[in-house]
Amino acid sequence: MPSLFRFLLTLGALAAFVYLGMLALVTFVQPQPHQIIETIPAARLNR
Description:
Blueprint: H1 2-28, H2 42-45
C-alpha cells in the first residue's frame, strides 16, 4: 500500500507543477498584438 500512496503523491505533485507552470505563463506573459498580412495568389481567388 505505501507504493500506491507514493505513486499518487508523485502524480499529484506532477499535476501541481503543470498547473503552476500554466498559471505562471498566464500571469507573466503578455501577448504582443500585431497585424498579419498575407498575399493570396489570384489563381486561388478564382476557384
